[in-house]
Amino acid sequence: MTQTPTKPAHHHGDLRNALIKAGISLLDEGGIAALTLRKCAARAGVSHAAPAHHFDGLAGLKSAVAQEAFRLFSRHMMDAANAEGPSPRDRLRGICRGYVQFGLTHRALLETMFGLDAESLLRERIDPGDSDAYQILRDTCAPFVPPDTQKEVIEFQVWSLVHGYTMLFVSGRLGCLHPKNLGDGPFDQVMALLDRIGDTSSS
Q1: 3-class secondary structure for the chain?
Q2: Residue 22 structural domain
Q3: Residues 154 and 169 in one domain
């Protein structure tokens, strides 16, 4: 009795996810320049024309990759927060640690996530403000919002600090051209500014 060959799972409706995963792998391995529709198709084991059935060109693929990247990003931050400690201050430092670690591990992915223009975000219905990642930031910052202060002020202070640090650090502008871990840069010294978040004593 002969057995009927089984096709790969992505041929049964999961091709879109297979192409997204292929895109993430290509970005991690070769940076922004490595991400093409043809390379994604080859990595997923399908014809070069297959991505056209799921994405509106390379821009559509990038947007889909960014959506998945935000989920990975959220997991990085939560894992780091849970490992840091139970106090609100510990968790705040933890999500920042996870943010930077994500940037070190997925540099091109971070660039893709935050490199989308407003038109692409609207077209693909990606709202960073509604994402799990931003909700994690919001929840973690909540204990540090002083009375009569807009919560967004504290959120943007923390976000600006950690995002600015991450982008400078992973691009080699903070004293180490090819950083591989947090210890290659002044993470603790810069994140000491978090101790002032929500402090109104000097105002």
Answers
A1: CCCCCCCCHHHHCCHHHHHHHHHHHHHHHHCHHHCCHHHHHHHHCCCCCHHHHCCCHHHHHHHHHHHHHHHHHHHHHHHHHHHHCCCHHHHHHHHHHHHHHHHHHCHHHHHHHHHCCHHHHHHCCCCHHHCHHHHHHHHHHHHHCCCCCCHHHHHHHHHHHHHHHHHHHHCCCCCCCCCCCHHHCCHHHHHHHHHHCCCCCCC
A2: 11-55
A3: yes
